[in-house]
Amino acid sequence: MEKYEVIESRRYKHLPTGRTASLYGACPWGMNKADKDNWIVESVGWTVRNNRLGTVGISRAPWQTKEEAQAFVDSHI
């Protein structure tokens, strides 16, 4: 199994305010089910998943292209 895998970088976005939240954190609409429809999932580039640790991202902004993310993976095998 490869240590890193290139994946699409996605996040929640609140349409009325533009706020964003991680897909891997708490539910952004919390207990307010009426607000759930105001949140969408958007793609914002490419990142990596560390398959050995089960983590996503490496504390940097997502790469714009899949090829740039793959170059990182290839240099960290």
What is the element layout, followed by pairings?
Elements: E1 4-14, E2 20-22, E3 39-50, E4 55-56, H1 66-75
Antiparallel strand pairs: 1-2, 1-3, 3-4
Task: Explain this structure.
The structure is a single chain. This protein is mainly beta. The protein has one domain (4-57, 64-75). The protein is 13% helix and 36% strand. The protein contains one helix and four strands. The protein has one helix spanning 66-75, and strands at residues 4-14, 20-22, 39-50, 55-56. Strands 2-1-3-4 form a four-stranded antiparallel sheet, covered by helices on one side. Strand 1 and strand 2 form a beta hairpin. The radius of gyration is 15 Å and the shape is elongated.
Sheet of most strands? 4 strands, antiparallel
Q: Into how many domains do the coordinates divide?
A: 1
Query: If you average the pLDDT, what whole number results?
Result: 95
- Give the % helix: 10-25%
Strand content is 35-45%
The end-to-end distance, rounded to whole angstroms, is 11 Å
Strand order of the largest sheet: 2-1-3-4
**Helix-and-strand structural type:** mainly beta
List keywords for this structure.
4 strands, mainly beta, four-stranded antiparallel sheet, 77 residues, 1 helix, 36% strand
Summarize it.
This protein has one helix spanning 66-75, and strands at residues 4-14, 20-22, 39-50, 55-56. By secondary structure, it is mainly β. The protein has one domain (4-57, 64-75).
